[in-house]
Design goal:
It is a single chain. This protein is about 85% helix and about 0% strand. It is mainly α. It has one domain. It is globular and about 70 Å long.
């Protein structure tokens, strides 16, 4: 490898390390207040309040992914776009989101009829104001990501999270019920959009089809994929709310929130950094494979133990965090935690395929999942919310396996090599689960508070996982430590080709 190439790799490693530091710092600073506010709100509000807002959120999340038509992602993934074309895309994004908001307001009565709730009419109109904000911030956010400006992106995330938490709790204390869960996110989004435009102002120019056609076509593939994914991802909540009621939906939604928390906080932390990275290195096959292996191993090492551990301690976690009125969430948490671990890796795979311009493939996989998942949820709802949650894992070979197979073929990464990347996390998690299950049997005859039992199980499981990694994968762990230290010094890159075998 030439000295120039090594220098380029060191710069990328430095950007990744710096991005992780800023993003992790922002997430760490806001995580405590975010979760405290969520738990506080759960104790102040009822499952029906959460269920009602979840019903409104289903339509909002579906329309939100369609709103800017993938133009923000196109601005990130297409480095050939000029400033003039970017300004045209900014106008198109704002116009599309405004139109989608109008259609959402007009469709609110139909959604209220579907869920048999008159309250949804006004709730949808207010909650969907987030669509307007999305339209005006999509392109500026893409440009901040393209610049690898992780510092400002992290500050925006932190401001949004803190403001959302504070406004939600204050409104709940004032007795605003489900409106608390609408006011908080809207306040955070608005503040984030204001900061984004302050740091990355983008002008508006009248769109010319001949100049934006390529970006719109790529955005169309992304948008169709997103809308299909959003419909089948949120169809479980729609079916639960329709067939089992708002209380069941509230319990199911909290199960999904708890199961998704590790992936949302740790997984998205990594992928917020790697999304712009893969867009930048999309034409270098060696670097794509290198960073895909690094991020896959880092994700599995952090996500797998948390999710498998949550599946094992679900009863104690629900009792300690939420109270006995949320006991219905225990069953779904187990299934969803197992599924989310696999889904997180699949999300990374889809991200890389998008950077490599395999957007049409991603679109067809999403359409296949859209055809399969909603009928499965409807059938499973006959047996309750735990069966609905189990459907995600049972049908994972249909929804998740095809993109993984595609990326391994595209990058030339062999199946055994990929399994070797995941081996430390899988082995350590298996040992952790076995120990915690044995501990639960032993603690079964001892009367103690749910918090104490949860703390003992988490501590023992974490210790077992750490000891396993130190015994069998010490070299890999020290490699990451050296990477962080050496990147700060600017001395070397993470040599993944020298990954030791067990």
């Amino acid at each position: 490898m030439s000295a120039e190439t090594q220098h380029s790799h060191r710069k990328l490693d430095g950007a990744v390390a710096g991005g992780l530091a800023w993003t992790a710092g922002a997430k760490t600073a806001t995580q405590l207040i975010t979760w405290l506010s969520a738990i506080w709100a759960a104790r102040l509000l009822s499952p029906a309040d959460f269920g009602l807002v979840s019903m409104a959120g289903i339509l909002l999340n579906i329309t939100a992914v369609l709103s800017e038509f993938g133009l923000g992602t196109a601005a990130l993934q297409m480095p050939e776009l000029t400033a003039d074309v970017i300004a045209q895309l900014n106008t198109a994004s704002a116009a599309i989101c405004t139109a989608i908001y109008g259609l959402t307001v007009l469709s609110a009565p139909l959604a209220a009829m579907f869920f048999k709730s008159d309250q949804l009419k006004v709730l949808l109109a207010v909650n969907s104001l987030a669509l307007l904000i999305t339209g005006f911030q999509a392109v500026p956010m893409a440009l901040l990501q393209k610049d690898l400006d992780y510092r400002r992106l992290s500050v925006i995330d932190a401001v949004q999270a803190v403001l959302m938490a504070v406004v939600t709790v204050v409104c709940a204390l004032l007795g605003l019920a489900y409106w608390s869960l609408v006011a908080g996110p809207l306040a955070g989004r608005l503040a984030g959009a204001a900061l984004m435009y302050w740091w990355k102002p983008v002008p508006f120019k009248w769109p010319r089809w001949s100049q934006i056609e390529a970006a719109v076509r790529l955005g169309a593939h992304i948008s169709v994929s997103r809308i299909a994914s959003a419909i089948y991802v949120f169809s479980d909540g729609a079916i639960v709310g329709r067939t089992l009621g708002d209380s069941a939906l509230g319990a199911y939604q909290w199960a999904m929130n708890l199961a998704s928390a590790p992936a949302d906080k740790v997984g998205l932390l990594l992928m917020r950094v790697t999304g712009p990275l893969f867009a930048k290195i999309q034409n270098d096959a060696r670097l794509v494979q290198r960073y895909f292996r690094i991020v896959s191993e880092a994700l599995s090492l952090t996500i797998f133990p948390m999710l498998l551990g949550l599946a094992v301690v679900a009863p104690e976690a629900v009792q300690a965090l939420l109270g006995s009125k949320w006991a219905g969430a225990e069953g779904p948490i187990r299934w969803l935690a197992l599924f989310v671990g696999v889904r997180t890796l699949a999300t990374l795979v889809t991200q890389v395929l998008t950077s490599l311009r395999y957007t049409r493939f991603n679109m067809w996989v999403s359409l296949l999942s859209f055809a399969v998942m909603p009928p499965a949820f409807l059938i499973a709802s006959r047996w309750g919310i735990a069966a609905v949650a189990a459907s995600w894992l049972i049908l994972a070979p249909v929804t998740i396996l095809p993109p993984i197979v595609k990326l391994l073929r595209v990058t030339g990464l062999r199946y055994l090599e990929y399994l070797d990347v995941l081996a430390p996390a899988l082995g350590g998690s298996a040992v952790m689960v076995a120990l915690v299950l044995a501990l639960k049997v032993w603690l079964g005859g001892i009367q103690m508070h749910a918090w104490a039992e949860l703390a003992i199980e988490v501590a023992a499981g974490g210790a077992a996982y750490g000891v396993f990694l130190l015994l069998f994968y010490r070299t890999r762990l020290t490699r990451y430590l050296h990477f962080i230290l050496d990147t700060r010094k600017g001395s070397q890159e993470l040599a993944y080709t020298e990954m030791p075998k067990m």
